[in-house]
Amino acid sequence: MLAAMLLLARWLGPTQQGVFSKVKAEVEFIAALAMLGLPQALFFFVQAGQMSLVTARRWSGTAGGTAAAAGAIYCMAATGDDLVNALSMSLAGAAFAWHGCLRGVVLASSGTRTFNVTTALPQFLLLGFAMGAVANGGISRTSAALAFAVAFVAAALLGFRGDGRVVPPKSPPKRDVVAFGLASGVASLGMPAATFLLVHAVERDLGASSLGVFTLALTIAQGVLVPLNYAIPLLFKRWMEQPSESNPHRIGVSAAVIMVSIAALMTLLGQTSGIERWFGRYVELSTLLPILLLAASADAYQRMLAVDSNARGAPRIPAFAEAVRVIVIAGGTFSGIAGGSPGFGLVVVGGSLACLTSQIVLHSRLSERKT
């Protein structure tokens, strides 16, 4: 998705790229509300042999249907979209949620190769959409939403076909699935909720063009974490199976150091060569990007501790930490203290540091109880 946004940013400018980024933020938030931890719950129960693939896929379809309804209600009630836009957002939210749940099922029931393809396919399809948008000379809210719908439906169908190993035809009580999902779902909702708040606050205070600049910087900063994000489900699976091999502090600190180094390098490049030259209208990028990379360094460390907490059966810890992030970012965005784009970037840093601090404190108590 980073490649698609860079392409849109370079050739269509911040306003058009901002349209794509806003749709992305809204779709992710709608889907996160609908899934509310179901991917982790489905993975856990299928991996443990307590749920059949048929049942897991049924749950995935339920999440997709819930996201479709939530997307339509949001668009019609909150944004005032017409029926066509509301329908496209509804389809996009449903596809994103269905794909997100099926990824957890694929990871538990198939090999990592199928999981990797299912995860990466939407990125390539959205890159194709970006190329078409550049050739067409622009995008709309509806076309962007439909692109998300097509990309994630295609990847979900690929995951739906992969049967993998045979799982005993058992079905845990629905209340157990919902309880597990709710516990981990609050944590999964944190980042989409924070991004949703930021996108709307930046557009409200600074305008559509500044929204494009901010979301591009945010996507680049989070894009550096893509290898780590791909590794998280695999680490979760491995640390569940072999708890003695978990080493979240070492991996987290190493990732954070790398991110800080990248931030320092980007600052140096911005001062010497001007990173914004390639992007023309993105004059604040060289200032904003290092700030958001510092936030991403805290996120890298926090995500490793969150994986270990979930593997130990304590999803309440990352849930609390992510709730702290949302509270800090909500306070910063709606209090009016942010000011310009760098100010919003500092709000993101504050949220990430607060989230990491909460995670470290609670995870240390969990480690003490385990020893």
Question: Which key terms come to mind for this protein?
Answer:
371 residues; single chain; 84% helix; mainly alpha; 13 helices
Would you write up a description of this structure?
- The protein is an all-alpha fold and 371 residues long.
- Helices cover 84% and strands 0% of the residues.
- The protein is built from 13 helices and no strands.
- It has helices at residues 2-35, 38-47, 53-79, 83-109, 112-136, 141-161, 174-206, 208-223, 226-241, 248-272, 285-311, 316-334, 341-370.
- Helix 1 (2-35) packs across helix 7 (174-206), helix 2 runs antiparallel to helix 7 and helix 3 packs antiparallel against helix 4 (83-109).
Which consecutive residue ranges, at least 5 long each, have pLDDT under 50? none
| Mean pLDDT level | 84
As a percent range, the share of strand residues is under 5%
Shape: globular
- The number of helices is 13
Termini separation (Å)?
Answer: 41 Å
Give the structural class: mainly alpha
Query: Care to count the β-strands?
Result: 0
Rg = 20 Å
Helix content: over 70%
Order of helices and strands: HHHHHHHHHHHHH
The major β-sheet equals: none
